[in-house]
């Protein structure tokens, strides 16, 4: 195919994904496919959906996706290690109730928020302890804590709601940056996005996250502290969820035990749509950001078009299935074409080995 | 070669899903374009119930739709699947973006959706609440389905008629701390003391709006008070459970059950003679009135201040009361003769 056959083959053998030119590696990925889809849907909606190009669209859209965007950051890392955290929405609810309850008891909003974040850290640490150090499966642990934290939230406040928050703080949650259509919540989101991108893609800790997802045994023997890494990821998920809970409470001016029920599924759906493999080891944050925004844009555009909530859910569900299926479909295509090529080619052992490693990568271990 | 094939297929697969999503969008906007053609911008009225798929709100929205069609506006119904305030806010935001004429909303929280409603009002949308109000500063008008006095009065009237204005009765309520129910029960007791001296309320029990608990409480009441002549249940769950118990027991015909119920739950017991009459407001009329009130606001006929009057189609003339509230009227009594007309 190209002129430099020998060095390429060598590189292929160990790092198949580094065998191509930089622009191909960056652009021809699932992440950029999601970004392209986001742009297509966005510009289509701008031209075709009435009022989508109005001044309020971006503002409300960002307010709506903010909590999902926030929680998707640590969730991406958790899923890349091959674990999952289903308790995030319950931590949002618990944090919301704590802010309301403590504020009603006379505490200032920043103090109440601080306590809520500390409790979020504790919730995450409890998940992390059970998963990383006791060695229980995260699916089971976080289904348990999903019920536990939600139960605490509803138990603290009962079926009542606290809606008496100072205007200063509820306005801040909805404030705009200057006269732009960007709400101020974008600032902490950007800070966290930068921190998480650095952490995942530019630090040894981040390499360890991918290694654990591909093979935690191998990660352990290559010097990654598997338990500690997982533990801190769950702590991050708890802390960020609690922060999202504070924002949620102030944005809607309402502290209720059932706040954000079911949000964990929206977060996980967005993360998977963004190209993260549910089996771990694969994913990137720019894809996840595009996944969250894609769901946000679709919801906003369809609502403006008077499409009812359940039809919106159906469309997003189909999109998610299509995106997950595309991975399996690609593996199938890769395998069939590889099989055909093997029959046609010389079948040297080196080549076969290369194909085997490619299959491995395609299957996501 | 192999890898570029794989990536190309990835793009193709996503393009297919893009096409799928886009065609879904396109289909929606086509039908939308056809609908809004004749409506004009200002007379679009959107109903936002507490949640979708709720027969009560299906009925009120039906009334709203009939009214909007009657005056030639554009009707739409949106809503969350769960009855939560944060579920309603995105739909209120959408109304603000669309700049619709009026939003008719049943609030899931009196305060939490307030800021979003005010943003919509800033964008020029009139806000009418019905069924469940917000604090007055967040809406232009509230359509009240019934006053507490009206509800208390009609229940006392029904039970008095059914038991011959004399004897022991009991009350089967919802939760012990339910604000609405407790207010009605207090007013009923006052009304009985004032105008029906021969009726005695021997007990008030609480079924917590749980079907089984209400059923068990009915059973206990009838054993404890063998001379009981009637049970009044000012909650839809309670009255249905009480009617079911009485209908299957020896007390059928001897103990009268009445209160607030919905036709679909009570139909069987009205038709088999366990229940003579029960009351509720008519949600269809409620939606109808709310839509006409929205129109009057959009047209500038009323501003929502006390004393404003407007005409609501077949329902006649209404006057805005204190706190920008319009009262639908006296509760509606459902009997064997009219229950067939209702499905909610």
Could you outline the blueprint of secondary structure elements for this entry?
The complex is a heterodimer of chains A (365) and B (344).
Chain A: H1 5-14, H2 22-27, H3 30-48, H4 56-80, H5 88-104, H6 109-133, H7 138-157, H8 167-174, H9 186-202, H10 204-214, H11 216-221, H12 226-252, H13 263-273, H14 285-304, H15 309-344, H16 349-362
Chain B: H1 2-36, E1 44-48, H2 55-70, E2 74-77, H3 85-98, E3 102-105, H4 114-122, E4 126-130, E5 141-144, H5 148-163, E6 167-173, H6 179-195, E7 199-206, H7 211-224, E8 228-233, H8 236-247, E9 256-259, H9 263-271, E10 277-280, H10 283-299, E11 309-311, E12 317-319, E13 325-327, E14 332-335
Parallel strand pairs in B: 1-2, 1-3, 3-4, 4-5, 5-13, 6-7, 6-8, 8-9
Antiparallel strand pairs in B: 10-14, 11-12
Helix pairs in contact in B: 2-10, 3-4, 5-6, 7-8
Structure overview:
The complex is a heterodimer of chains A (365) and B (344). Chain A is an all-alpha fold. Chain A has a domain at 58-288. Chain A has 16 helices and no strands. The longest helix of chain A is centred in the last third of the chain and has 36 residues, at 309-344. Chain B is 46% helix and 19% strand. Chain B has helices at 2-36, 55-70, 85-98, 114-122, 148-163, 179-195, 211-224, 236-247, 263-271, 283-299; strands at residues 44-48, 74-77, 102-105, 126-130, 141-144, 167-173, 199-206, 228-233, 256-259, 277-280, 309-311, 317-319, 325-327, 332-335. Chain B is elongated. Chain B is α/β, with parallel strands linked by helices and 344 residues long. The N and C termini of chain B lie far apart (64 Å). The chains are: A mainly alpha (365), B alpha/beta (344). At the A-B interface, helix 3, helix 4, helix 14 and helix 15 of A face helix 1 and helix 3 of B.
